[in-house]
Structure formats: structure tokens, C-alpha cells
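User: Structure please.
Assistant: Input sequence and predicted structure:
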Amino acid sequence: MALSAMSTLSDIFAYRERECYRVCAVPNSSPFTNNSAAISRAAITLQARKQQLVRDAIWDAAVNLFSEKGFDETTVDDIAQASGVSRRSFFRYFSSKNDLMAHSIVSYGTALADAIHACPRTHSRSEVFRETVRTVAQQSAPGSRTRKIMRIAAKYPAAREAQLTRLAEIQEHVAEVFAERLGISSPGDPRPHLLAGLTLTALSATFRMWFHGDGQDIAVIADRVLDQLDELVCEDARTSPEPRPTPRTRKRG
């Protein structure tokens, strides 16, 4: 099984090398152009892609093993063999099995940042928040992989704790992206962190409802969660018949 997986990775790497040469090297083959910089950039890009392919192969093999064998019962050697890499290679990409389990959270943070950046510049803060929740929910839900990961985290406390170790880092990163989007440079401004916290909370509630639900479209669930959040936050403003009076300062003397 390990030999088969390694052969597959080798085939993918060979294909990537051919494609990288075709796309990056050939257009710069003019004798009047210095190719060294372009080739160097192509080599770096190819190396990064190779690393990502190996990282993804390890992650995919691990998720299958965690689901079939159990998170606590699966060893690093099991994962290395199933993904077609050596134990030493495994530790080049992940420091431990727990670090590997947190891989999905890191990818989650990247998806959130990409969704925020992709929102039209004409969107208001509220529209960016809602669009980000909808987009990431719809991107994450298709297929069985997300459910599989959620089952693992729900069943094994160690797996769940491994994910939580990176959550604060992800929230900070999302807050930075919101701050950039809103043009906020003051570190004391609470709005980016509030938006980041609300985004993660809304998505957590969405995934929980979807996971325990009966297969309803996650986009519908996301809208329901957002509407309920809006009701909770704005309840006082909607139910109060008139504005609350401002307390008056008593004059002395």
C-alpha cells in the first residue's frame, strides 16, 4: 500500500514538473531574456506544490485511519505507511499526530481569509460578515470529509483539543483580515475582533446544526443562523417602544 501511494506521488510530481516547465520556462526562452530568475521562481513554486501534495496525502490518509481505526489507536507509523512516506518525512510536515489533526483548522482560516477578500468592495461590514459565513459554509460542507472530521472530533477529546489549540491563532488572523478590509489600523479598535468572533461563532453553530440535521442544505441553515443572530443582537432595539432615556448628571451647588 505504501509503495502504491509513493508511486502515485511520484507520478504527480513528474507531471507537475513538466507542466511547470511548459508554463514558466518556455515563454521566457528568448535569447534576449534572462531566464535564471524565472526558472528560480518556477523551482520555488514547484517545490511548494510538492510539499502541499505530500501534506495533503498525509492528511487524507490520517483522516481515513482516524475514522476507521480511531484517533487514539492510530500511530504516526500507521499514517506514514498509509500515505506512502517515511516516518522521518512525516515529521518534516507535522510535529505530532495532534499537530496533524489541527491541519483542518489552518485550512479553515485560509478559507475564511479568502472569502473576506473575495467580497465586493461595495459590501458593507454586515454584508461581508454574512457573505463570508455563507461562502465558507458552502465550501466546507460538500462531500463526506467534513462530516468525517466532525465525527472524529466529537468522539475523541484529544482530537477535539488538538483542533482548539489553533483556534485562537485563526481568530487573530481573521481579525487582521477584517481590519485590513475595514481600513482599521488601531490595535485597540474592537470591531475586527468582534467580527472575527462572530464569524467563527456563526459558522460553528451552522456546522453543528448541519451535522446533527437531516441533510438540509447548509446554505439554508447558514441563513437561519444569521437571522437568529440578528434577532438576538437587535432584540432590544426592536422590542423597545421608545429610546431609553440618557441618565442626567446632577448639578452641584
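Residues 103-237 form a domain with the Tetracycline Repressor; domain 2 fold (CATH 1.10.357.10).
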